[in-house]
Design a protein that fits this description.
The chain has ten helices and 18 strands. By secondary structure, it is an alpha/beta fold. It has a seven-stranded mixed sheet. It has a seven-stranded mixed sheet with strand order 7-8-9-14-15-16-17, covered by helices on one side. The longest helix has 11 residues.
Amino acid sequence: MTRFDITILGCGSAMPTTLHNPPSQLVELNEKLFMIDCGEGTQLQMRKYKTRIGKLQALFISHLHGDHIFGLPGLISTLSMLGRTDDLHIYAHREIELLLKPLLIYMGQHMSFKIELHPLNAGKKEVIYENKTFQVSSFPLKHRVNTNGFLFEEKEAPRHIIREMINYYNIPVREIAAIKAGADFITDNGTLIPNHILTRPPSPPRRYAYCSDTAYAPEIIPYIKGVDLLYHEATFAESELSRAAETYHSTARQAAEIAAAASVKKLLIGHFSSRYNELETLLHEARAVFSDTELADEGKIVSL
């Protein structure tokens, strides 16, 4: 099984603190490295946790508030200084051009690579990245500006061949691909060998959903149903419920209610308000509703 790791680079919110960095995560899936959001100082966090900055494939930006994008200029500059030549693909709302165009004009001929912008659809779920083994979808969240969540999901793998049975029935190599895809096998004398005798089912596809920033929004449940890991913002404790509603953020309890309703396997909460010097209150409130909850923390790696 290939690696499917999520690394937390920052789990704070808009107001800078010395406890947490602004939002950013890395997703390593099938030997490819992706970034979700890019708050100020993200490239320093990549250095600190010895991640492979030069291997970055693409960036997914949930929305255009500063705490999620102010790390982009530094990251782009560093990638250029490192001599990157591959295009950098950025999936974000079209208005990000207001930030990127002046930067690219300023850097001019010193840029060693091109940036390809892929505008997000803020109104519906759609697949935005795909290869043979996995895909990434975006879906709408509920915030003060256009905001999208992201769903990383493996495609279903071929069935596993039982080598002993292949040898026993003298199945030719040319038939293997069809059998892995689910076909039965018919011997020379016309006997049908069912596929389940020749193969084992593959491991279930793994899925990761990222939901930040968002108010409490039950309408996102169909997009994240049953995921292996849900990252959901938990900016406030329940005592700040009115403040959460006013700012279109969620409480830890609300994040847990979404996780429970969506039947996810594990919940990771983050995007913590700067007002909290300790996070046990948030964790306790979430676990009261959804027991398999963990706190995000800089440097934390969750492997699926």
